[in-house]
């Protein structure tokens, strides 16, 4: 058994360094292989960006209010007419999170918030006699679908003349641009630019139902999650097959799921060369006896199938003695179940910050 502690996804295979492509011109040592590369399928991008909820129709008067609000997107005078006199807006960015009050202030802020027109669609609403709320998305129609720009929550109030106005608007936007799909051809372009010859492509399938990445998936049926995992692992191997001389595929799964052993066998049959797991996302506890027993089953099967193993243990929180105990448990109780294959400990044990205690 060979155990590698890698801090970077770039490490030369057999410690070989080559001068390749543009790197040769610059005479800069370049790793032969990127051992930790992720593609991004449309399904994974959808989870990262947030799978949109279905929209709903609004009462005619409220629907017209949202249309007027969106139509006046960059016109503070027109915006002012849809807000109540004491309206509130949430202002949130990297520097502040504050509430502004007053029709003119709210309208002025929102008129400068967007660079292009948009529409506002609702996913839920609740209306009373004099007040109500609407939650939904800011969207922009596109040729191939809809771009979800952000989400909002509106508080509505009925004025003395019987017309609805917006009493509060709380917008929310994800940081950065939406995640786009990353395909095998994109990976090859990046490798060529960096002067790297090959890459190990790690499937993201194990993230479905993940503790932080996809918590909503945990409430789907096990059968539905398994279908997503199979689809993602199959997508990954198809992408890698387009460049068999440059890319190698590792499948991914949650080792605690009931399907784990069946999927691991299927991965070997479909051409994956290794297994990638992320213990934090899978809620694995290396001090839990049942978890350890299950991990031993998975590691042992990977060993028999001659599948290399890459794992984000990410049990590096807590006092140094706790981290050290987790490392000892993993090495002495889990890793020993796969003595014939290489086990790579991604990110020097973590998956986040480097952990000195894990190496003691």
From TrEMBL:
GO terms for molecular function: carboxy-lyase activity; hydrolase activity. Residues 1-23 form the signal peptide. InterPro entries: ACMSD, Amidohydro-rel, Metal_Hydrolase, NTF2-like_dom_sf. It comes from uncultured Chloroflexia bacterium. It holds the Pfam family Amidohydro_2. This is Amidohydrolase-related domain-containing protein. Residues 218-351 form the Amidohydrolase-related domain. GO terms for cellular component: cytoplasm. Keywords: Lyase, Signal.
């Amino acid at each position: 058994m060979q155990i590698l502690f890698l801090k970077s996804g770039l490490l030369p295979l057999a410690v070989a360094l080559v001068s390749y492509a543009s790197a040769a011109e610059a005479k800069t040592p370049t790793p032969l292989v990127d051992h930790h590369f992720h593609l991004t399928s449309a399904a994974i991008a959808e989870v990262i960006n947030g799978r949109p909820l279905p929209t709903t129709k609004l009462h005619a008067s409220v629907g017209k209010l949202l249309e007027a609000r969106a139509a006046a997107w960059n016109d503070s005078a027109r915006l002012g007419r849809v807000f109540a006199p004491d309206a509130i807006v949430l202002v949130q960015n990297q520097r502040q999170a504050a509430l502004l009050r007053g029709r003119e202030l709210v309208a002025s802020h929102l008129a400068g918030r967007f660079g292009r027109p948009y529409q506002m669609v609702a996913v839920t609403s609740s209306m009373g006699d004099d007040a109500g709320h609407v939650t939904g998305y800011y969207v922009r129609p596109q040729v191939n679908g809809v771009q979800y720009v952000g989400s909002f929550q509106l508080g509505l109030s009925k004025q003395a003349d019987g017309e609805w106005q917006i009493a509060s608007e709380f917008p929310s936007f994800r940081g950065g641009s939406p995640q786009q799909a990353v395909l095998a051809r994109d990976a090859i372009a990046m490798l060529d630019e960096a002067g790297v010859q090959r890459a190990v492509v790690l499937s993201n399938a194990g993230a479905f139902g993940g503790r932080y990445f996809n918590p909503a998936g945990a409430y789907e049926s096990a059968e539905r999650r398994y279908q997503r995992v199979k689809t993602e692992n199959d997508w990954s191997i198809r992408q890698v097959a387009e460049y068999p001389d440059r890319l190698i595929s590792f499948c991914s799964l949650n080792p605690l799921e009931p399907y784990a052993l069946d999927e691991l066998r299927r991965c070997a049959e479909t051409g994956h060369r290794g297994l990638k797991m992320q213990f934090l996302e899978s809620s694995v506890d290396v001090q839990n006896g049942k978890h350890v027993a299950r991990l031993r089953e998975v590691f042992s099967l990977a060993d028999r199938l001659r599948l290399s193993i890459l794992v984000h243990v990410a049990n590096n929180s807590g006092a140094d003695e706790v981290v050290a105990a987790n490392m000892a448990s993993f090495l002495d109780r889990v890793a020993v179940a796969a003595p014939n294959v290489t086990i790579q400990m991604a990110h020097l044990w973590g998956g986040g910050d480097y952990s000195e205690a894990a190496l003691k």
